[in-house]
């Protein structure tokens, strides 16, 4: 069976939220936008509505809840009541219902919730499930920077998200990759319901992208830059159908879009995963 064509979502983490970026994305055919209630100093929703309110109906919009303003720094909470209010506030600030609301990094609070971690996670998921049923959003998901703490908590008895978003790419460790696969399987989610994020580990200017050639993971990827090849390969580490990627330059987004037609060498990716798994166990490669 042919895999779903890779999709791109414009992520606004660390973005300046400029209108020209959104119009540039639309010109490139990128019609999905991902933000969070805590981006841009907890002003992302309001700024989006102000600078691009007329563009938002043209975009599929996802956001995240879980972080809240604190007295001196942001605090994280999985309290169901706070999460529900946060979704309501997102609708108010954006001027529309989000198509998707993610529970943002639930692992941040789960370790401190032991031994009630599973109950706390279930209640948080139920809060977003209820918000969806009330029409406050089109659906809900879970965005996890480190899904490892979720592995022993998730099963089909918990409310099921429609999307799981995790870190993706060549810089993601085997523990995180395996945990992402395990959580997706436990929730019964296929690759068509999986999103990747941070495919470059924070920056395309990191020295690592000059030292390695990710083109070895592609078939016919000789004409691509190292950054393009790394981006396309990230869709298989772990396997995701959609990638959220941030930039403030439409030209950079266009460069990444140019890599999507390339095909990943599945065997090379499997061998790479086997290699890093072996090395993580301290065994000879």
H and E order: EHEHHEEEHEHHEEHEHEHEHEH
Strand order of the largest sheet: 1-2-3-6-7-8-9-11
**Distance between the ends:** 32 Å
Number of strands: 12
Q: Enumerate how many helices there are, as a single number.
A: 11
- CATH homologous superfamily placement: NADP-dependent oxidoreductase domain
Q: Main beta sheet: strand number and arrangement?
A: 8 strands, parallel, barrel
Shape: globular
Q: Class by helix and strand content?
A: alpha/beta
Mind telling me the CATH class? Alpha Beta
What is the CATH architecture assignment?
Answer: Alpha-Beta Barrel
Percent of sequence in beta strands: 15-25%
- The fold-level CATH name is TIM Barrel
Regions with little confidence, pLDDT below 50 for 5+ residues: none
Give the % helix: 25-40%
Radius of gyration: 19 Å
Mean pLDDT: 94
Domain module count: 1
Q: Any overview of this molecule?
A:
Strand 1 (7-11), helix 1 (19-28) and strand 2 form a beta-alpha-beta unit. With 285 residues, this protein is of the alpha/beta class. The radius of gyration is 19 Å and the shape is globular. The protein has helices at 19-28, 39-42, 44-52, 80-94, 107-110, 117-133, 174-186, 208-211, 226-234, 250-257, 266-280; strands at 7-11, 32-34, 60-65, 67-68, 75-76, 100-104, 140-144, 163-167, 194-197, 218-219, 242-246, 263-264. It has one domain (7-280): NADP-dependent oxidoreductase domain (TIM Barrel), CATH 3.20.20.
